[in-house]
Design goal:
Elements: E1 11-15, H1 44-56, E2 61-65, H2 75-83, E3 90-95, H3 100-110, E4 114-118, H4 124-131, H5 136-149, E5 154-160, H6 169-174, E6 182-187, H7 195-200, H8 206-211, E7 216-218, E8 227-231, E9 238-242, E10 255-258, E11 263-265, E12 274-275, H9 277-281, H10 287-295, H11 313-316
Parallel strand pairs: 1-2, 1-10, 2-3, 3-4, 4-5, 5-6, 6-9
Antiparallel strand pairs: 7-8, 8-9, 10-11, 11-12
Length: 318
């Protein structure tokens, strides 16, 4: 599938729940979230059916997200179902890894290929502060379990936050010296109810290059990746910088998002959404609608002028 700007759209990100077992400050408002009614959430069967239609039309890369996807009941059933779709070349998941020790073997056996793990600090006390409910040891044990089961390559996603984890940049980068792992710093994005908090805590990813001048830029084989990659000399792993604020990467965007309540978002930073839920529940064919959604994908987002989206990240999916 191609949009009007010649971009090949082959990547579907599926949020399976708006719920999470953590309360990260940049993701979850202090007052909590307005939970989506259960009847509004897509069933696993509906997600499977929508995914199969997208794959039939050209999607070959699928990522399962949340909230936290591992809190969704029977999540292994969905992973196994999507894993059986022949044309899916890459099936991945984004998780906070707190439940990963329990699930990693079953996820691998169900057909999951690899993981992105959200981890914003290596300090136990700071982890408890930023997540409000989490324990760092659960994440570290989950990572080790995933490595043991072969859910690799693992990518660590670190949201860079002013006055919180700048002092850990070097520590995160040093993880790549002896581990075949991607450590990716993501600029804090102004989204939903927390957009103003995020703007006050934003720092550019250029800070990473200033703190670690030994990093050398490397070529990535995936031109659609939002990350610019770097390496320390002789390091096994890579350091990625994802810069949606300071240097947007829209010209190579290849993704479409499906929210847990059945909305399609062709751009993360747009309030425009198309509801597929009622169509799928009424047995309608999605072909023409999907074609139109892909064809009319926006050329780029426009955060520079303060056009921030209203939905919280937990409702959209990571």
């Amino acid at each position: 599938m191609f949009d009007l700007y010649g971009r090949k759209i082959n990547y579907l990100r599926i949020s399976v729940t708006d719920l999470c077992n953590l309360r990260c400050k940049y993701c979850m408002p202090e007052k909590g979230i307005d939970k989506i009614y259960h009847k509004e959430i897509l069933t696993l069967e509906e997600i499977q059916s929508i995914t199969e239609k997208f794959v039939e039309m050209g999607i070959d890369k699928v990522r399962i997200t949340g909230g936290e996807p591992l809190v969704r009941n029977n999540i292994l059933k969905l992973v196994e179902g999507i894993g059986r779709i022949e044309k899916v070349k890459d099936l991945a998941m984004t998780t906070n890894a707190t439940l990963l020790k329990k699930y990693s073997r079953d996820l691998k056996n169900a057909g999951l290929n690899r993981l992105n793990i959200s981890l914003d600090t290596l300090n136990e006390e700071k982890y408890s502060i930023i997540t409000k409910t989490g324990q760092l040891k659960d994440v570290l044990e989950g990572i080790e379990s995933a490595k043991k089961e072969g859910l690799t390559p693992i990518k660590l996603n670190i949201v860079l936050i002013k006055d919180f984890n700048e002092d850990e940049i070097e520590d995160f980068v040093n993880l790549t010296r002896y581990e075949d792992i991607d450590v990716r710093f993501i600029e804090l994005m102004p989204i939903g109810a927390l957009k103003y908090w995020s703007l006050n805590k934003y720092i550019s990813n250029e800070t990473v290059l200033e703190r670690v001048p030994a990093l050398i830029e490397t070529k990535s084989s995936d031109i659609s990746s939002p990350a610019r990659y770097y390496k320390l000399p002789n390091a096994k792993g890579r350091v990625g910088l994802i810069n949606p604020i300071s240097c947007k990467f829209c010209e190579n965007c290849n993704r479409i998002r499906l929210t847990a309540d059945g909305k399609i978002k062709s751009c993360l930073h747009s309030n425009d959404e198309i509801d597929l839920k009622e169509l799928i529940r009424n047995g309608k064919d999605l072909t023409n609608l999907i074609t139109d959604i892909v064809k009319n994908k926006p050329k780029e987002h426009n955060l520079e002028e303060g056009n921030y989206i209203n939905r919280d990240m937990t409702a959209i999916g990571g």
